[in-house]
Amino acid sequence: MKKSLVLAMAMALGVTASAYAANPFSDVPAGHWAYDSISKLAAAGIIEGYGDDTFRGDRLMTRYEMAQIVAKALAKGANVDKLAAEFADELDALGVRVAALEKKSDNVKITGEIRYHYASSNKNVREGDKKYEHGLRSRIYFTGKVNDNWNYVGRIQNQQWFHDNAGNEETHFNIAKLEGRLGGVKVVAGRDDDVFADGMIYDGEHDAIKLSYGDKWYVSGAYGKLTDLNEPDNDGDPAKDFSKKFWTAEIGSNIEDSFVNGKVGYLRTKLGAEGETDYDRDNVGIFYVGADFKVAKDLNLGAMYLHTNADKFNGENGFDTTKKNGFVVGLGYKGAEASEPGSWGLAAKYYHQGKGTYLAHTIDGYTDFKSGFKGWSVGGDVTLAKNMVLGVTYYDTKALKDEMEQADLKKARVLWSELNITF
What we know:
The chain is α+β, with helices and mostly antiparallel strands and 423 residues long. The chain has six helices and 18 strands. Helices cover 15% and strands 48% of the residues. Helix 1 (2-12) packs across helix 2 (35-43) and helix 1 runs antiparallel to helix 4 (80-86).
């Protein structure tokens, strides 16, 4: 291997017979056929020989020695094509091993996010029946590469509460999913955390298989369980039997720089015993249609209409009638980008939703009225430094039908602030 390597290096560096006359190694006589090539390579600092001033040209070299020589040659401007042709087999074998090592070291990617939040309200509608709450939520994501088309994603979440001075916390492994493609279909299967109908119907964890096809124009669907609806209210409480299974379907557009993008969808969940008690039926089905308009540069208008088959809810005096319809209108200007320090945005929304048009709403204001809720929100966010975003939102909500509510819960005002750090 040494003989072929010396010749290849000499050709790559353009060695000539008279390039160097000095004898670099004691075991390479001046009349040796490789004398000039070895002299050239030694003078260029590509080969060094051994500490006793010998070259030992009849000794087999290791792959590590070859790799070191090739690296030095390339750094000196060697002709890569000639080297690759001469050592095609050896470099191929070495390349496979190196590529496999690099792939293995990059097989699992770890990312995370930390959120500190503080919320205050005019009523005892926050965590633990207090008028305020604050806590720290930490999330660590593990993304493992299964192959070129599939990844495994897991998430560990820790939530610490500070407002009761008891050091309460909880840790869950609450995302465990496979995501990838089968042909042109994107597939997500397992425990996930996502929104449906932009969060106006549901925002939370679910066990499901989700399929979507298309980019600018798409169709998507999911089937599984809405697990957040069955979470106990407090530690030690038994799990709820509220929702057994669900399915949803949606079609829409996502065309960049288009004046308008829209979506139409339907979500249906079969209720458990507690859900049937609340709604006086064995299922809730919600139809929705939404549109986003690019009114001007950096200014967007969004609207969504919702309709449900659930027109009753178990109030204080038995089942009371609640509205089947709902709508949400929002206006947004710019928006903070985590990667762009100094970027900022403003947003405002108006909500008017009957109790049957949402299951686990996305907003951080109070929505747990028995008749549904109406109200508005206004807020903004700003990127303080790269990957550090501060947001503040004010929510003013009240019961959709006053006669169904307790006097002290007819209206709730919540000021929500949070600092999000991603890494």
